[in-house]
Amino acid sequence: MLKTVQEAATILGVSPDTIRRWEKKGLIKALRSTHNYRLFDVNELQRVYDKYSAQHSSRGFYVLKTEPHRFNVIELFSGAGGLALGFENAGFETRLLVEWDKDAANTLKANRPSWNVLHSDVARVDFQDYADAVDVVAGGFPCQAFSYAGQGRGFEDTRGTLFFEFARCVSQIRPKIALGENVKGLLEHDSGRTLRTMVHILEDLGYKVCFRVLKAQFLDVPQKRERVFIVGVREDIDQSFSFPSERDYTLSLREALEGCPKSAGALYPEKKRRVLEMVPPGGYWRDLPDDVQRDYMGGSYHLTGGKTGMARRLDWDEPSLTLTCSPAQKQTERCHPSETRPLTVREYARLQTFPDDWAFSGSIASQYKQIGNAVPVNLGYHVARAIYDTLSGTSEGAVTKREPTEVPRQLSLWETST
Q1: pLDDT tens across 333-364, in order?
Q2: Check: CATH 1.10.1660.10 for 2-52?
Q3: What is the structure's pLDDT at 160?
Q4: Residue 23: exposed, middle, or buried by beta-carbon count in 10 A (0-12, 13-18, 19+)?
Q5: Is 96 exposed, middle or buried (0-12, 13-18, 19+ CB in 10 A)?
């Protein structure tokens, strides 16, 4: 049953403008009618009611995990291990991780001495020894422009790019499944030609390919982060791949940071600190007096777009904005909701669903960069579980464990209104 904005506002006891604002922020999901009106499913309204009602209990912070199984994975461009840890938590054995950045490679080695971590330029790695012995090849390759994309040269179109190295690895190993990950902007890169080239090359290598943008905030990650996942299933595998279904809840910053260990973090210069003191939770530069806006933003004040990250303070009751490589830079500020400071390293890690005992190597700046570039661990887990379902030919999978356990069922909106 679908409800209009006005009906949804009446049911939840808020204004229609609040419903529209929640939908814009991604706190509530809407469908669109043939006339582009917002419509809300009653189950989605129930979820929002449960979350924001007085009876709501916090889910708290957790990392998803299940039991090991027989499948294995190799990952390129592994970074600080967000996707690798997601696969491990989903039961996969890690055969090899390749990472060029020294600090990120040291992070992997320090946290998992048993992992085979190769600190190397991927272009120098020969994968022939793993041929026909690996179930999954994964990699979050950077998106570079292709010199000859769309010129009909196939595999050669991507030579000199990191996607070429990913495709070369897939070609040498012939895994059952190839998984690529990238920023949402890949969909529009070079008017879509870059993504089409990637898809066609994987198809030429003998894979059935699909792709989708996944929203981390609906997959047990307390962060509004969207990523494109490209999945290729080898043509001789008689199974199709289904992307993980979005959950009917989101996790707030308050839930994510509850009990977060104290740690080092960046600091604001005094001038910036005084400006951000004026910004309310969930606010940004538009909440500042006009004279402060002009002084703080300089030439950016007159730009028409690209300013929403400036003087940005997070909100306790929402998922975090997408984390960047630095929480303190002028265009990408991620100010703590109630303290006037950037998020700390451990707070950053919580929002990427790294466990609290996952240590990061290198300088504070390097640690922020590693975390900001990572695939959220729980998002990686959900993708890996979907891959497990394909490999095992089941949609059941193993039982997922949460720490802490699920919250008890809340009093129903429909029960309280009758």
Answers
A1: 889 999 999 999 999 999 999 999 999 999 99
A2: yes
A3: 62
A4: middle
A5: buried
DSSP state of 31: E
C-alpha distance from residue 413 to each of 10, 56, 147, 404, 410 (Å): 12, 12, 56, 25, 9
Q: Which CATH number fits domain 72-250+375-392: 3.40.50.300, 3.30.1330.60, 3.40.50.2000, 3.40.50.150?
A: 3.40.50.150
Domain locations in the chain? Answer: 2-52, 72-250+375-392, 266-343
143: annotated active-site residue: yes
Q: Which residue in 143, 169, 210, 260 is the catalytic one?
A: 143
Q: Do 2-52 and 72-250+375-392 come out as alike in CATH topology?
A: no
The amino acid at 182:
N
Contact yes or no for 208/238 (Cβ under 8 A): no
What sign results for the dihedral spanned by CA atoms 114, 118, 122, 125?
A: negative
Question: The whole model's pTM is what?
Answer: 0.83
Residues of the chain where predicted confidence (pLDDT) is lower than 50: 54-56, 147-150, 396-399, 403-418
69-121 pLDDT per residue, tens:
999 999 999 999 999 999 999 999 999 999 999 999 999 999 999 999 999 99
